[in-house]
Prior knowledge:
Blueprint: E1 2-7, H1 16-30, E2 34-39, H2 44-52, E3 56-59, H3 67-79, E4 84-88, H4 94-102, E5 107-110, E6 123-126, E7 143-146, H5 155-158, E8 173-177, H6 186-197, E9 203-207, H7 215-222, E10 228-232, H8 238-244, E11 247-251, H9 255-261, E12 266-270, H10 276-284, E13 289-293, H11 299-311, H12 313-324, H13 331-343, E14 345-348, H14 354-361, H15 364-369, H16 378-390, E15 394-400, E16 406-415, E17 418-425, H17 434-449, E18 454-460, H18 464-472, E19 476-483, E20 486-494
Parallel strand pairs: 1-2, 1-4, 2-3, 4-5, 5-6, 6-7, 8-9, 8-11, 9-10, 11-12, 12-13, 17-18
Antiparallel strand pairs: 14-15, 15-16, 16-17, 18-20, 19-20
Helix pairs in contact: 1-13, 6-7, 6-11, 9-12, 13-17
Amino acid sequence: MNLYIRADADAKIGTGHIMRCIALAQAWRDGGGKVIFLSHCESDTLCQRIIDEGFDLISVENPHPDPNDLSQTLAYLEHLSSSWFILDGYHFTPDYQKAIRDAGIRLLIIDDMNYLPRYHADILLNQNIHAPDLKYNCDNDTTLLLGTHYVLLRREFLKYRDFNRQIPERAKNILVTLGGGDPDNVTLKVIQALNLIGDPNIEVKIVVGPANQNIEKLHKELILSPFTFHLLPKVIDMPELMKWADMAVSAGGSTCWELAFMSLPKLLVILAENQVEMVEHLEAQQAAVNIGWWNMFSIEQLSAKVNALIREKNLRKSISENASSLVDGKGTSRATKVMIGALITLRRVTYDDCNLVWQWSNEEETRKASFSQGLISWDEHVQWFKEKLADPNHVFFIATNGNKNPIGQIRYSVEGKKAIVSFSIAPESRNLDYGSELLRVATLRLFRETEVEEILAFVKADNPVSFKTFQKAGFKKTEELFLHGSKSCKFVLIKQN
Protein backbone atom coordinates (compact mmCIF):
# COMPACT_ATOMS: atom_id res chain seq x y z
CA MET A 1 0.00 0.00 0.00
CA ASN A 2 1.07 3.54 -0.68
CA LEU A 3 1.72 6.27 1.87
CA TYR A 4 1.86 9.81 0.48
CA ILE A 5 3.47 12.56 2.56
CA ARG A 6 3.03 16.28 1.89
CA ALA A 7 5.60 18.34 3.85
CA ASP A 8 7.97 21.18 2.97
CA ALA A 9 11.38 22.49 4.07
CA ASP A 10 13.16 25.82 3.57
CA ALA A 11 15.13 28.34 5.62
CA LYS A 12 11.97 29.68 7.26
CA ILE A 13 10.05 26.44 7.81
CA GLY A 14 13.09 24.42 8.79
CA THR A 15 13.48 20.68 8.31
CA GLY A 16 11.56 19.31 11.30
CA HIS A 17 8.32 18.60 9.45
CA ILE A 18 10.01 16.36 6.91
CA MET A 19 12.31 14.71 9.44
CA ARG A 20 9.48 13.52 11.69
CA CYS A 21 7.54 12.36 8.64
CA ILE A 22 10.56 10.23 7.72
CA ALA A 23 9.98 8.34 10.98
CA LEU A 24 6.46 7.35 9.90
CA ALA A 25 7.71 6.64 6.38
CA GLN A 26 10.36 4.23 7.70
CA ALA A 27 7.81 2.32 9.75
CA TRP A 28 5.39 2.15 6.82
CA ARG A 29 8.02 0.81 4.45
CA ASP A 30 9.19 -1.71 7.05
CA GLY A 31 5.63 -3.02 6.96
CA GLY A 32 5.87 -3.58 3.21
CA GLY A 33 4.32 -0.34 1.98
CA LYS A 34 5.60 2.19 -0.53
CA VAL A 35 6.25 5.84 0.43
CA ILE A 36 6.05 8.90 -1.81
CA PHE A 37 7.02 12.38 -0.61
CA LEU A 38 5.40 15.40 -2.29
CA SER A 39 7.57 18.27 -1.17
CA HIS A 40 8.74 21.80 -1.77
CA CYS A 41 12.19 21.16 -0.35
CA GLU A 42 14.96 23.73 -0.89
CA SER A 43 17.67 21.59 0.70
CA ASP A 44 19.55 19.29 -1.66
CA THR A 45 20.89 17.42 1.37
CA LEU A 46 17.41 16.70 2.70
CA CYS A 47 16.13 15.71 -0.74
CA GLN A 48 19.00 13.24 -1.00
CA ARG A 49 18.17 11.93 2.48
CA ILE A 50 14.63 11.14 1.33
CA ILE A 51 15.91 9.36 -1.77
CA ASP A 52 18.62 7.46 0.14
CA GLU A 53 15.92 6.14 2.48
CA GLY A 54 14.37 4.48 -0.55
CA PHE A 55 11.35 6.80 -0.83
CA ASP A 56 10.07 8.43 -4.01
CA LEU A 57 10.30 12.22 -4.14
CA ILE A 58 8.02 14.41 -6.26
CA SER A 59 8.92 18.10 -6.29
CA VAL A 60 6.25 20.74 -5.58
CA GLU A 61 7.40 23.96 -7.23
CA ASN A 62 4.81 26.35 -5.80
CA PRO A 63 3.45 25.33 -2.40
CA HIS A 64 0.05 26.21 -0.97
CA PRO A 65 -1.57 28.75 -0.98
CA ASP A 66 -0.67 28.56 -4.66
CA PRO A 67 -3.73 26.77 -6.16
CA ASN A 68 -1.53 24.50 -8.28
CA ASP A 69 -0.35 22.73 -5.13
CA LEU A 70 -3.75 21.25 -4.27
CA SER A 71 -4.76 20.49 -7.85
CA GLN A 72 -1.48 18.71 -8.60
CA THR A 73 -1.63 16.79 -5.32
CA LEU A 74 -5.16 15.59 -6.01
CA ALA A 75 -4.10 14.60 -9.51
CA TYR A 76 -1.30 12.41 -8.17
CA LEU A 77 -3.62 10.73 -5.69
CA GLU A 78 -6.34 10.19 -8.27
CA HIS A 79 -4.11 8.15 -10.58
CA LEU A 80 -2.26 6.19 -7.92
CA SER A 81 -3.64 3.78 -5.34
CA SER A 82 -3.43 5.50 -1.96
CA SER A 83 -4.03 4.10 1.49
CA TRP A 84 -2.98 7.12 3.58
CA PHE A 85 -2.00 10.73 3.00
CA ILE A 86 -0.05 12.75 5.58
CA LEU A 87 -0.08 16.54 5.83
CA ASP A 88 2.56 18.22 8.00
CA GLY A 89 2.84 21.99 7.79
CA TYR A 90 1.18 25.10 9.16
CA HIS A 91 0.35 26.47 5.71
CA PHE A 92 -2.16 23.73 4.86
CA THR A 93 -5.51 25.39 5.51
CA PRO A 94 -8.86 23.79 6.44
CA ASP A 95 -9.98 24.12 2.80
CA TYR A 96 -6.89 22.21 1.66
CA GLN A 97 -7.55 19.47 4.22
CA LYS A 98 -11.23 19.23 3.37
CA ALA A 99 -10.50 18.87 -0.34
CA ILE A 100 -8.28 15.88 0.43
CA ARG A 101 -10.92 14.19 2.57
CA ASP A 102 -13.72 15.00 0.11
CA ALA A 103 -11.72 13.15 -2.54
CA GLY A 104 -12.12 9.98 -0.45
CA ILE A 105 -8.48 9.92 0.70
CA ARG A 106 -7.58 8.91 4.25
CA LEU A 107 -5.84 11.86 5.84
CA LEU A 108 -3.50 12.08 8.83
CA ILE A 109 -2.57 15.59 9.93
CA ILE A 110 0.48 16.24 12.12
CA ASP A 111 0.04 19.38 14.20
CA ASP A 112 1.80 21.19 17.06
CA MET A 113 -0.34 24.02 18.39
CA ASN A 114 -4.03 23.88 17.36
CA TYR A 115 -3.47 26.94 15.16
CA LEU A 116 -6.43 26.48 12.78
CA PRO A 117 -10.13 27.18 13.44
CA ARG A 118 -11.01 23.66 12.20
CA TYR A 119 -9.29 20.44 11.19
CA HIS A 120 -10.51 17.91 8.64
CA ALA A 121 -8.76 14.57 9.17
CA ASP A 122 -9.23 10.89 9.78
CA ILE A 123 -6.40 11.07 12.31
CA LEU A 124 -4.90 14.14 13.97
CA LEU A 125 -1.54 13.59 15.67
CA ASN A 126 0.13 16.04 18.05
CA GLN A 127 3.16 14.50 19.76
CA ASN A 128 3.81 17.36 22.16
CA ILE A 129 3.54 17.32 25.94
CA HIS A 130 0.79 19.96 26.03
CA ALA A 131 -1.32 18.34 23.28
CA PRO A 132 -3.87 16.61 25.60
CA ASP A 133 -4.84 20.06 26.94
CA LEU A 134 -5.72 21.44 23.50
CA LYS A 135 -9.37 21.61 22.46
CA TYR A 136 -9.39 20.70 18.78
CA ASN A 137 -12.35 21.59 16.58
CA CYS A 138 -12.34 18.71 14.11
CA ASP A 139 -14.61 16.36 12.19
CA ASN A 140 -16.77 14.05 14.30
CA ASP A 141 -15.01 10.92 13.07
CA THR A 142 -11.46 12.21 13.68
CA THR A 143 -9.22 10.04 15.85
CA LEU A 144 -6.97 12.13 18.11
CA LEU A 145 -3.47 10.89 18.95
CA LEU A 146 -2.23 13.40 21.50
CA GLY A 147 0.82 13.60 23.73
CA THR A 148 4.31 12.19 24.02
CA HIS A 149 2.86 8.68 23.77
CA TYR A 150 2.99 9.36 20.01
CA VAL A 151 6.42 10.98 19.62
CA LEU A 152 7.72 10.13 16.14
CA LEU A 153 11.30 8.87 16.32
CA ARG A 154 13.29 7.77 13.30
CA ARG A 155 14.68 4.27 13.13
CA GLU A 156 18.24 5.31 14.02
CA PHE A 157 17.10 6.35 17.51
CA LEU A 158 15.34 3.12 18.40
CA LYS A 159 18.53 1.09 18.85
CA TYR A 160 19.21 3.28 21.91
CA ARG A 161 16.04 2.22 23.71
CA ASP A 162 18.10 0.60 26.48
CA PHE A 163 20.78 3.27 26.58
CA ASN A 164 21.83 4.11 30.15
CA ARG A 165 23.23 7.64 30.35
CA GLN A 166 26.03 8.35 32.80
CA ILE A 167 26.05 11.83 34.33
CA PRO A 168 29.60 13.19 34.90
CA GLU A 169 30.50 15.54 37.74
CA ARG A 170 31.12 18.30 35.23
CA ALA A 171 29.76 18.43 31.70
CA LYS A 172 32.50 18.49 29.09
CA ASN A 173 30.84 17.52 25.79
CA ILE A 174 28.27 20.06 24.61
CA LEU A 175 25.94 19.65 21.63
CA VAL A 176 24.45 22.73 19.95
CA THR A 177 21.54 22.25 17.55
CA LEU A 178 19.27 25.16 16.60
CA GLY A 179 17.16 23.66 13.84
CA GLY A 180 17.53 23.01 10.16
CA GLY A 181 17.37 26.68 9.09
CA ASP A 182 18.16 29.02 11.99
CA PRO A 183 17.42 32.16 9.90
CA ASP A 184 18.08 34.44 12.90
CA ASN A 185 21.52 32.87 13.44
CA VAL A 186 20.88 32.04 17.09
CA THR A 187 23.72 29.52 16.80
CA LEU A 188 26.14 32.47 16.65
CA LYS A 189 24.71 33.82 19.90
CA VAL A 190 25.23 30.44 21.59
CA ILE A 191 28.85 30.27 20.37
CA GLN A 192 29.48 33.76 21.73
CA ALA A 193 28.02 32.69 25.09
CA LEU A 194 30.29 29.64 25.17
CA ASN A 195 33.27 31.84 24.34
CA LEU A 196 32.46 33.98 27.38
CA ILE A 197 32.75 30.93 29.63
CA GLY A 198 36.33 30.62 28.38
CA ASP A 199 36.71 26.97 29.36
CA PRO A 200 39.41 25.22 27.25
CA ASN A 201 38.36 21.82 28.66
CA ILE A 202 34.97 21.67 27.00
CA GLU A 203 34.38 20.26 23.52
CA VAL A 204 31.52 21.58 21.40
CA LYS A 205 29.82 19.98 18.41
CA ILE A 206 27.59 22.35 16.47
CA VAL A 207 24.96 20.95 14.11
CA VAL A 208 24.35 23.26 11.17
CA GLY A 209 21.12 22.24 9.44
CA PRO A 210 20.88 21.78 5.67
CA ALA A 211 18.97 25.06 5.29
CA ASN A 212 21.40 27.16 7.38
CA GLN A 213 22.93 30.07 5.44
CA ASN A 214 25.27 31.40 8.15
CA ILE A 215 28.15 28.92 8.09
CA GLU A 216 30.83 31.49 7.20
CA LYS A 217 29.83 33.75 10.11
CA LEU A 218 29.98 30.80 12.48
CA HIS A 219 33.45 29.87 11.24
CA LYS A 220 34.74 33.38 11.89
CA GLU A 221 33.44 33.38 15.46
CA LEU A 222 34.76 29.91 16.23
CA ILE A 223 38.31 30.90 15.27
CA LEU A 224 38.33 32.92 18.50
CA SER A 225 37.02 30.06 20.66
CA PRO A 226 39.26 28.69 23.45
CA PHE A 227 37.62 25.25 23.29
CA THR A 228 37.75 22.39 20.80
CA PHE A 229 34.89 22.69 18.31
CA HIS A 230 33.37 20.79 15.39
CA LEU A 231 31.05 22.48 12.90
CA LEU A 232 28.84 19.74 11.42
CA PRO A 233 26.90 20.75 8.28
CA LYS A 234 25.91 17.21 7.30
CA VAL A 235 24.91 15.00 10.23
CA ILE A 236 24.10 11.41 9.36
CA ASP A 237 23.85 9.95 12.87
CA MET A 238 22.16 12.41 15.23
CA PRO A 239 21.54 9.87 18.04
CA GLU A 240 25.27 9.08 18.15
CA LEU A 241 25.95 12.79 18.69
CA MET A 242 23.38 12.88 21.49
CA LYS A 243 24.96 9.81 23.05
CA TRP A 244 28.37 11.54 22.96
CA ALA A 245 27.14 14.75 24.57
CA ASP A 246 26.85 15.50 28.29
CA MET A 247 24.36 18.32 27.66
CA ALA A 248 22.77 20.25 24.80
CA VAL A 249 21.64 23.71 23.81
CA SER A 250 18.72 23.21 21.47
CA ALA A 251 15.79 24.89 19.79
CA GLY A 252 12.41 24.11 21.31
CA GLY A 253 11.15 22.11 18.33
CA SER A 254 10.72 18.40 17.69
CA THR A 255 14.40 17.80 18.52
CA CYS A 256 13.30 18.14 22.16
CA TRP A 257 11.74 14.69 22.00
CA GLU A 258 14.84 13.12 20.49
CA LEU A 259 16.89 14.66 23.30
CA ALA A 260 14.36 13.43 25.86
CA PHE A 261 14.49 9.90 24.47
CA MET A 262 18.28 10.00 24.69
CA SER A 263 17.97 11.33 28.29
CA LEU A 264 20.25 14.25 27.42
CA PRO A 265 20.10 17.31 29.76
CA LYS A 266 19.20 20.38 27.74
CA LEU A 267 18.75 24.13 27.68
CA LEU A 268 16.00 25.18 25.28
CA VAL A 269 15.79 28.35 23.20
CA ILE A 270 12.40 29.43 21.85
CA LEU A 271 12.72 30.30 18.18
CA ALA A 272 9.04 30.35 17.14
CA GLU A 273 5.54 30.74 18.58
CA ASN A 274 4.74 27.05 18.18
CA GLN A 275 7.55 26.19 20.61
CA VAL A 276 6.35 28.28 23.56
CA GLU A 277 3.88 25.90 25.20
CA MET A 278 6.11 22.89 24.67
CA VAL A 279 9.15 24.52 26.28
CA GLU A 280 7.10 25.88 29.17
CA HIS A 281 5.59 22.45 29.85
CA LEU A 282 9.00 20.82 29.76
CA GLU A 283 10.25 23.42 32.20
CA ALA A 284 7.27 22.73 34.49
CA GLN A 285 8.11 19.00 34.36
CA GLN A 286 11.73 19.86 35.24
CA ALA A 287 12.72 18.16 32.02
CA ALA A 288 14.63 21.12 30.56
CA VAL A 289 16.03 24.56 31.35
CA ASN A 290 13.96 27.22 29.60
CA ILE A 291 16.22 30.02 28.35
CA GLY A 292 13.31 31.88 26.74
CA TRP A 293 12.86 33.67 23.43
CA TRP A 294 16.09 33.93 21.43
CA ASN A 295 15.91 37.73 21.24
CA MET A 296 14.94 38.35 24.87
CA PHE A 297 18.16 37.38 26.66
CA SER A 298 21.70 38.69 26.46
CA ILE A 299 24.80 36.71 25.59
CA GLU A 300 25.92 37.18 29.22
CA GLN A 301 22.65 35.74 30.58
CA LEU A 302 22.87 32.76 28.25
CA SER A 303 26.51 32.19 29.19
CA ALA A 304 25.61 32.11 32.89
CA LYS A 305 22.84 29.52 32.39
CA VAL A 306 25.02 27.29 30.24
CA ASN A 307 27.86 27.49 32.76
CA ALA A 308 25.49 26.65 35.61
CA LEU A 309 24.30 23.48 33.88
CA ILE A 310 27.90 22.50 33.11
CA ARG A 311 28.69 22.63 36.83
CA GLU A 312 25.48 21.30 38.44
CA LYS A 313 25.49 17.51 38.20
CA ASN A 314 22.31 17.05 40.25
CA LEU A 315 20.36 19.38 37.97
CA ARG A 316 21.57 17.53 34.87
CA LYS A 317 20.68 14.20 36.46
CA SER A 318 17.18 15.39 37.35
CA ILE A 319 16.54 16.77 33.86
CA SER A 320 17.83 13.55 32.29
CA GLU A 321 15.54 11.32 34.35
CA ASN A 322 12.45 13.50 34.02
CA ALA A 323 12.84 13.88 30.27
CA SER A 324 13.48 10.21 29.53
CA SER A 325 10.28 9.24 31.34
CA LEU A 326 8.26 11.17 28.75
CA VAL A 327 9.32 9.30 25.59
CA ASP A 328 9.51 5.50 25.38
CA GLY A 329 10.37 5.16 21.68
CA LYS A 330 7.13 3.40 20.71
CA GLY A 331 5.23 6.41 19.38
CA THR A 332 5.84 5.74 15.69
CA SER A 333 4.74 2.14 16.11
CA ARG A 334 1.59 3.23 17.92
CA ALA A 335 0.69 5.71 15.20
CA THR A 336 1.19 3.25 12.33
CA LYS A 337 -0.86 0.64 14.18
CA VAL A 338 -3.79 3.05 14.34
CA MET A 339 -3.34 3.76 10.63
CA ILE A 340 -3.28 0.05 9.81
CA GLY A 341 -6.25 -0.60 12.07
CA ALA A 342 -8.25 2.08 10.29
CA LEU A 343 -7.66 0.23 7.02
CA ILE A 344 -9.16 -3.01 8.33
CA THR A 345 -12.83 -3.57 7.53
CA LEU A 346 -14.82 -6.52 8.82
CA ARG A 347 -17.70 -8.15 6.99
CA ARG A 348 -19.72 -11.21 7.86
CA VAL A 349 -18.68 -14.41 6.11
CA THR A 350 -20.97 -15.69 3.35
CA TYR A 351 -21.02 -18.99 1.51
CA ASP A 352 -19.12 -17.30 -1.33
CA ASP A 353 -16.11 -17.23 1.02
CA CYS A 354 -16.06 -21.00 1.45
CA ASN A 355 -13.29 -21.70 -1.05
CA LEU A 356 -11.14 -18.77 0.11
CA VAL A 357 -11.29 -19.87 3.76
CA TRP A 358 -10.49 -23.46 2.70
CA GLN A 359 -7.36 -22.30 0.84
CA TRP A 360 -6.22 -20.22 3.82
CA SER A 361 -6.88 -23.10 6.21
CA ASN A 362 -4.73 -25.51 4.20
CA GLU A 363 -1.82 -23.08 3.81
CA GLU A 364 1.41 -24.55 5.24
CA GLU A 365 2.04 -22.04 8.04
CA THR A 366 -1.60 -22.14 9.11
CA ARG A 367 -1.52 -25.93 9.40
CA LYS A 368 1.68 -25.80 11.48
CA ALA A 369 0.04 -23.41 13.94
CA SER A 370 -3.12 -25.52 14.21
CA PHE A 371 -3.71 -28.22 16.79
CA SER A 372 -4.75 -30.56 13.97
CA GLN A 373 -2.03 -30.34 11.31
CA GLY A 374 -3.43 -32.61 8.60
CA LEU A 375 -4.79 -31.16 5.39
CA ILE A 376 -8.53 -30.54 5.33
CA SER A 377 -10.51 -32.14 2.51
CA TRP A 378 -12.97 -30.07 0.51
CA ASP A 379 -15.99 -32.12 1.58
CA GLU A 380 -14.98 -31.94 5.23
CA HIS A 381 -14.49 -28.19 4.96
CA VAL A 382 -17.84 -27.56 3.24
CA GLN A 383 -19.71 -29.43 5.96
CA TRP A 384 -17.85 -27.52 8.69
CA PHE A 385 -18.35 -24.19 6.93
CA LYS A 386 -22.12 -24.69 6.55
CA GLU A 387 -22.40 -25.59 10.23
CA LYS A 388 -20.58 -22.44 11.29
CA LEU A 389 -22.75 -20.24 9.05
CA ALA A 390 -25.89 -21.75 10.57
CA ASP A 391 -24.68 -21.54 14.17
CA PRO A 392 -26.06 -18.38 15.87
CA ASN A 393 -23.33 -18.66 18.51
CA HIS A 394 -20.53 -18.50 15.93
CA VAL A 395 -19.38 -15.00 14.91
CA PHE A 396 -17.36 -15.22 11.71
CA PHE A 397 -15.71 -12.29 9.85
CA ILE A 398 -13.62 -11.77 6.75
CA ALA A 399 -11.17 -8.86 7.11
CA THR A 400 -10.30 -6.62 4.17
CA ASN A 401 -7.66 -3.91 3.78
CA GLY A 402 -7.91 -0.37 2.44
CA ASN A 403 -8.05 -1.68 -1.12
CA LYS A 404 -10.94 -4.02 -0.17
CA ASN A 405 -8.75 -7.09 -0.65
CA PRO A 406 -9.29 -9.96 1.83
CA ILE A 407 -6.40 -10.19 4.32
CA GLY A 408 -7.64 -12.80 6.79
CA GLN A 409 -10.44 -14.32 8.80
CA ILE A 410 -11.43 -14.25 12.46
CA ARG A 411 -14.15 -16.17 14.27
CA TYR A 412 -15.53 -16.48 17.77
CA SER A 413 -17.31 -19.44 19.36
CA VAL A 414 -19.62 -17.77 21.87
CA GLU A 415 -21.03 -19.38 24.99
CA GLY A 416 -22.77 -16.98 27.33
CA LYS A 417 -20.45 -14.15 28.22
CA LYS A 418 -17.33 -15.99 27.06
CA ALA A 419 -15.94 -16.57 23.58
CA ILE A 420 -13.02 -18.51 22.10
CA VAL A 421 -11.21 -16.75 19.26
CA SER A 422 -9.42 -18.21 16.26
CA PHE A 423 -7.97 -16.27 13.35
CA SER A 424 -5.51 -16.44 10.47
CA ILE A 425 -3.88 -13.94 8.14
CA ALA A 426 -3.67 -14.55 4.39
CA PRO A 427 -0.12 -15.56 3.34
CA GLU A 428 0.36 -12.49 1.15
CA SER A 429 -0.68 -10.18 4.01
CA ARG A 430 1.69 -11.46 6.67
CA ASN A 431 4.55 -9.36 8.06
CA LEU A 432 2.38 -6.24 7.69
CA ASP A 433 1.40 -6.14 11.39
CA TYR A 434 -2.22 -6.95 10.56
CA GLY A 435 -2.57 -9.71 13.17
CA SER A 436 -2.74 -7.72 16.39
CA GLU A 437 -4.78 -4.97 14.73
CA LEU A 438 -7.28 -7.48 13.33
CA LEU A 439 -7.66 -8.92 16.83
CA ARG A 440 -8.11 -5.47 18.31
CA VAL A 441 -10.66 -4.28 15.73
CA ALA A 442 -12.68 -7.51 15.77
CA THR A 443 -12.66 -7.75 19.56
CA LEU A 444 -13.95 -4.21 19.95
CA ARG A 445 -16.78 -5.04 17.58
CA LEU A 446 -17.60 -8.28 19.41
CA PHE A 447 -17.73 -6.49 22.76
CA ARG A 448 -19.91 -3.77 21.23
CA GLU A 449 -22.42 -6.05 19.46
CA THR A 450 -22.72 -8.97 21.93
CA GLU A 451 -22.84 -9.64 25.66
CA VAL A 452 -19.38 -11.24 25.61
CA GLU A 453 -17.13 -9.99 28.42
CA GLU A 454 -14.22 -12.43 28.22
CA ILE A 455 -12.32 -13.80 25.22
CA LEU A 456 -10.09 -16.88 25.41
CA ALA A 457 -7.36 -17.96 23.02
CA PHE A 458 -5.32 -21.17 22.99
CA VAL A 459 -1.92 -21.12 21.32
CA LYS A 460 0.63 -23.90 20.82
CA ALA A 461 3.72 -23.37 22.97
CA ASP A 462 6.03 -23.53 19.95
CA ASN A 463 4.34 -20.55 18.24
CA PRO A 464 6.10 -17.39 19.59
CA VAL A 465 4.75 -15.25 16.75
CA SER A 466 1.18 -15.85 17.88
CA PHE A 467 2.23 -15.24 21.50
CA LYS A 468 3.47 -11.80 20.53
CA THR A 469 0.40 -11.06 18.40
CA PHE A 470 -2.06 -11.81 21.20
CA GLN A 471 -0.01 -9.89 23.75
CA LYS A 472 0.18 -6.83 21.48
CA ALA A 473 -3.61 -7.00 21.18
CA GLY A 474 -3.95 -6.84 24.98
CA PHE A 475 -4.36 -10.54 25.82
CA LYS A 476 -2.70 -11.87 28.98
CA LYS A 477 -1.13 -15.30 29.27
CA THR A 478 -2.80 -17.06 32.22
CA GLU A 479 -1.70 -20.70 32.22
CA GLU A 480 0.08 -23.53 30.43
CA LEU A 481 -1.76 -26.73 29.58
CA PHE A 482 -1.92 -29.69 27.23
CA LEU A 483 -4.53 -29.39 24.50
CA HIS A 484 -5.12 -32.00 21.79
CA GLY A 485 -1.81 -33.59 22.77
CA SER A 486 0.21 -30.37 22.42
CA LYS A 487 1.77 -28.17 25.08
CA SER A 488 -0.21 -24.95 24.88
CA CYS A 489 -0.82 -21.61 26.52
CA LYS A 490 -4.08 -19.94 27.41
CA PHE A 491 -4.54 -16.22 26.78
CA VAL A 492 -7.40 -14.12 28.14
CA LEU A 493 -8.77 -10.66 27.33
CA ILE A 494 -11.42 -9.17 29.63
CA LYS A 495 -13.71 -6.38 28.53
CA GLN A 496 -12.90 -3.03 30.11
CA ASN A 497 -15.92 -1.00 31.18
